[in-house]
Design goal:
single chain; 266 residues; alpha/beta; 40% helix; binds NADP nicotinamide-adenine-dinucleotide phosphate; binds D-gluconic acid
Length: 266
């Protein structure tokens, strides 16, 4: 066992939607492991914000404006990256949104938007990156799945369907391209304190904690929300040579939520 297998030196890592949040934390860890960081966001001001944040951390990242749902834009984006930075060795499909709306109140347009970004986007990004990975003889794809790849809950029907589909897309890329030495795995974060979950942690008018906040803490054996930093080690592992025989796997980083039926009555 060579500990250098956990290093990412000489690798180009593309993390989608990584101006902040989970994507940013993963990119930070990849940079510390030696990778060159490429990221995208849908708005220039967010890319600029991200570049400034990376610079503050001493990371010279390459930022691009690109909507992961736009196949033509993604094709141009990847061609630019390959020309300006290099072939993408590691793709992290992180960009994602959620809409918390009771299913029968959700419009088909709202449903389609979530599916488009959270499931079709990773398909488009992977499709754009795989040919060069095959040519190079290796590649790593990490899809950011969710507890909702396994569980449902009220108001997140589109998100759960997308993340469940992303689990199966992960397994299918493994099946179709494992022979080309491409490892495609997923990370299933538990409940992580980021802007996406801020509404679930808002203090109530009386200063008490949000009921959902209390619920998640009681449902998590670790007794806390996760931080984006909790995902860094697992992400580096799945991006590195240390995981070359791990394929089609969803690694849940959830503080034990999925294993736990919930606190028994006193
Ligand atoms: P976040 O804070 O909302 O960040 C999401 C990022 O994706 C933002 O930078 C966003 O940019 C970008 N994005 C959205 N739509 C995009 C598009 N069409 N093209 C390119 N970029 C786009 O979310 P997060 O909490 O860091 O979550 C990141 C990923 O982890 C998501 O896939 C999420 O589903 C997943 N996840 C999160 C949790 C959690 O508890 N936080 C748990 C499990 C899984 P804009 O700001 O411009 O929208
Ligand atoms: C929600 C949350 C979750 C988390 C995450 C859990 O509303 O239930 O946003 O969906 O984002 O996906 O793994």
């Amino acid at each position: 066992m060579n500990m250098n297998d956990f290093r990412l030196d000489g690798k180009v890592a593309l993390i989608t939607g990584a101006s902040y949040g989970i994507g940013f934390a993963i990119a930070e860890a990849f940079a510390a492991a030696g990778a060159t960081i490429v990221f995208n966001d849908v708005k220039q001001e967010l890319v600029d914000k991200g570049l400034a944040s990376y610079k503050e951390k001493g990371i010279k990242a390459h930022g691009y404006v690109c909507d992961v749902t736009n196949e033509e834009a993604v094709t141009d984006f990847i061609a630019k990256v390959e020309k300006e930075v290099g072939v993408v060795d590691i793709l992290v499909n992180n960009a994602g949104i959620i809409k918390r709306i009771p299913m029968c109140e959700m419009t088909a347009a709202q449903w389609r938007q979530v599916i488009d970004i959270d499931l079709t986007g990773p398909f488009i990004m992977a499709k754009a990156c795989i040919p060069a990975m095959v040519k190079k003889g290796h590649g790593k794809i990490i899809n950011i799945c969710s507890m909702m790849s396994e569980l449902g809950r009220e108001t997140v029907s589109a998100y759960a369907a997308a993340k469940g589909g992303l689990k199966m897309l992960t397994r299918n890329i493994c099946s179709e391209y494992g022979g080309a030495n491409i490892q495609c795995n997923g990370i299933g974060p538990g409940y992580i304190a980021t802007p996406q979950t801020a509404p679930l942690r808002e203090r109530q008018a009386d200063g008490s904690r949000h009921p959902f906040d209390q619920f998640i803490v009681s449902k998590t054996p670790a007794g806390r929300w996760g931080n984006a930093e909790d995902l860094q080690g697992p992400a580096v592992f799945l991006a590195s040579d240390a995981s070359n025989f791990v394929n089609g796997h969803i690694l849940y980083v959830d503080g034990g939520i999925l294993a736990y039926i919930g606190k028994q009555p006193e």
